[in-house]
Amino acid sequence: MGEGRGTANSSSVIAMILLVLCMFVFHPKMIHAETYTVGDDKGWSFGVQNWPSGKTFKEGDILVFNYTPVIHSVVTVKEFGYNSCFPFGGSGFHISGADKITLVKGMNYFICGTPGHCSQGQKIAVNAI
């Protein structure tokens, strides 16, 4: 009887180890994801368009946009929306004041949806590798 218990426990341990290894193999982006606060201490505000400079972002990294929701918003847009400061047709409109957005591979574009704010530099373009 003692042998049976040891075998069952060994099998359970091996199964648990395999499960954990599978999690590392199939979800590597989540394991290595970094979280960045857009604008650092300044937050999501005017003049943040150069904030991504010098940083290396990866697919799965998380951007945190901190701002006053009555004044600002975050709109996920395509390149046209970024260049033209046109918020309509974007894939996401966020208004919580503490938005967490996961980067997808390639270019990610964000603007403030409040009229005039994007043209005053409240926009960022982030390339995730």
From TrEMBL:
Protein name: Basic blue protein
GO cellular component: plasma membrane
Keywords: Copper, Disulfide bond, Membrane, Metal-binding, Transmembrane, Transmembrane helix
InterPro entries xrefs: Cupredoxin, Phytocyanin-like, Phytocyanin_dom, Plantacyanin
Residues annotated as domain Phytocyanin: 34-129
One Gene Ontology term of the molecular function aspect: electron transfer activity
PANTHER family: BASIC BLUE PROTEIN-LIKE (PTHR33021:SF341), BLUE COPPER PROTEIN (PTHR33021)
Sequence intervals crossing the membrane: 6-26
Coiled coil segments of this chain: none
Superkingdom of the organism of origin: Eukaryota
